[in-house]
């Protein structure tokens, strides 16, 4: 699977990524196997551990994943994710992904106001 997620921060406490937490919501588009998907994503990250719990919403079901990230440089992040379940077509899904992300502060992306986060994810999805 390969996905591009474009999301904006909906709430923040503390001083992420040094401390606190932040939540986001946005789009999640790409390929799951041979199938092109367009959907949504939402979730929360906790700092300074940089762990997160997220869920992707697609017409055929949802995919839940947890992530562990780190700061690469100011405004740039990377890490890994573990798929921990889902609903519908993705019921009991498992798998792993890696991701890179950047904070985009230029012109609006995907109809969303800035700043937005752009996260590229790739990996494997295993269905029972």
Keywords:
AOC barrel-like, 128 residues, mainly beta, globular
Your description of this structure?
By secondary structure, this protein is mainly beta. It has one domain (2-126): AOC barrel-like (Beta Barrel), CATH 2.40.350. The protein is 0% helix and 74% strand. It has strands at 2-15, 19-32, 35-47, 51-58, 61-73, 76-86, 94-104, 116-126. Strands 1-2-3-4-5-6-7-8 form an 8-stranded antiparallel barrel. Strand 5 (61-73) and strand 6 form a beta hairpin. The chain is globular.
Please give a quick description of this structure.
With 128 residues, this protein is an all-beta fold. The chain has strands at residues 2-15, 19-32, 35-47, 51-58, 61-73, 76-86, 94-104, 116-126. The protein has one domain (2-126): AOC barrel-like.
Tally of discrete structural domains: 1
Note poorly predicted spans.
none
Q: What order do the helices and strands follow?
A: EEEEEEEE
Amount of helix: under 10%
- Going by helix content, strand content and strand pairing, the class is mainly beta
Biggest sheet strand line-up = 1-2-3-4-5-6-7-8
Rounded radius of gyration (Å) = 14 Å
Shape, per Cα inertia axes: globular
CATH topology: AOC barrel-like
**N-to-C CA distance:** 16 Å
Q: Mind telling me which CATH architecture this is?
A: Beta Barrel
Per DSSP E runs of 2 or more residues, the count of β-strands stands at 8
Q: How much strand content do the residues show? A: over 45%
């Amino acid at each position: 699977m390969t996905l591009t997620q474009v999301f904006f921060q909906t709430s923040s406490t503390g001083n992420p990524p040094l401390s606190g937490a932040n939540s986001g919501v946005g789009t999640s588009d790409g390929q799951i196997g041979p199938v092109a998907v367009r959907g949504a994503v939402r979730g929360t990250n906790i700092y300074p551990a940089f762990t997160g719990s997220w869920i992707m919403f697609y017409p055929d079901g949802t995919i839940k994943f947890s992530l562990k990230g780190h700061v690469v440089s100011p405004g740039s992040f990377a890490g890994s994710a573990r798929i921990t379940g889902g609903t519908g077509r993705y019921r009991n899904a498992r798998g792993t992904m890696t991701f890179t992300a950047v904070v985009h502060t230029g012109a609006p992306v995907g109809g969303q106001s800035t700043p937005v986060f752009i996260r590229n994810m790739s990996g494997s999805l295993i269905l029972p």
